[in-house]
Design goal:
Elements lengths: L9 H6 L13 E5 L2 E4 H13 L6 H23 L6 H25 L5 H15 L2 E10 L2 H12 L4 H4 L14 E5 L6 H7 L12 E3 L2 E12 L5 H27 L4
Antiparallel strand pairs: 1-2, 3-4, 3-6, 5-6
């Protein structure tokens, strides 16, 4: 079966730079099109990109990568003949693409060089565990635009109204058709005002006053609570390290932006 060449995000493409070469390192090119050689380095980047997406390294995939590069070169040469590469808008896109690749490679290298000790990872693990808590909550809510609307819903509930029926007025499209049901989640999954109100409820209770968040006004009902099983440290350690590297990169970007002279 012929292998398809899958598209990839910029980050995946840049990450592929670090992969080991697949095509022969002593070869200068993988093909020559109308007298112009296609560098083997270009083939290795595209091949590594495919492998990072789960493709198996097979002769068929290598042939597919070679054919893809040949087709690209043919089309690029034809576009060049027509002067497409000289157009201002194309030049601008090329500049942005090149800039994006360079930036991605720089940030990947910065992330790899961030020093993270086991003690740092354990501290982050404890911080996450504290934020998440030791319980999961099965809650539902009704989200409305105005506080007065939320108060009216609470009055209706106090008079015996059914929460799932009243939830049809909710402006949260993800839960309104399920009676406002939000499923099981830990407290860190919700914005602070919502979480603070929810954890004070006993199963079967609903908030007697509207709860305001950045999304609007909520009426919250707690259906059930259960113990949250925290995964062992060794199991989540790789994800925590990745998260910490991402945080370091984000901080680095903000620091550079703060120092930059922008006029």
């Amino acid at each position: 079966m012929r292998h398809a060449i899958r598209s990839a995000s910029l980050l995946a493409l840049v990450t592929a730079f670090a992969a080991a070469p697949v095509f022969a390192a002593d070869a200068k090119s993988v093909a020559t099109v109308n007298g112009k050689a296609i560098p083997v380095a270009r083939a290795n980047v595209l091949m590594a990109n495919q492998l990072s997406q789960g493709q198996a390294n097979t002769p068929e995939l290598q042939n597919a990568v070679r054919e893809e590069l040949v087709r690209r070169e043919i089309l690029a040469q034809e576009a060049s003949k027509k002067g497409i590469d000289k157009k201002a808008e194309v030049q601008a896109q090329l500049d942005l693409a090149r800039q994006g690749v360079v930036i991605g490679a720089y940030l990947n290298e910065y992330a790899r060089n961030v020093k993270i000790s086991d003690a740092d990872v354990m501290k982050e693990f404890d911080s996450i565990r504290t934020a998440v808590g030791d319980k999961e909550y099965k809650a539902r809510h009704i989200l409305v635009e105005k506080e007065s609307e939320a108060k009216d819903i609470i009055v209706s509930l106090n008079k015996g109204g059914k929460f799932d029926e009243l939830a049809k007025a909710s402006k949260d499209p993800g839960s309104k058709e399920r009676g406002g049901d939000l499923g099981w989640a830990n407290k860190a999954s919700y914005v602070p005002p919502f979480a603070e109100a929810m954890v004070k409820l006993q199963p079967g209770q609903y908030t007697q006053a509207p709860v305001q968040s950045s999304f609007g006004w909520h009426v919250i009902q707690l259906d059930d609570v259960r113990e949250l099983k925290t995964p062992p440290f060794d199991e989540v350690k790789p994800q925590i390290i990745q998260r910490m590297r991402q945080q370091a990169v984000e901080k680095h970007i903000l620091d550079l932006r703060a120092k930059a002279k922008v006029e």
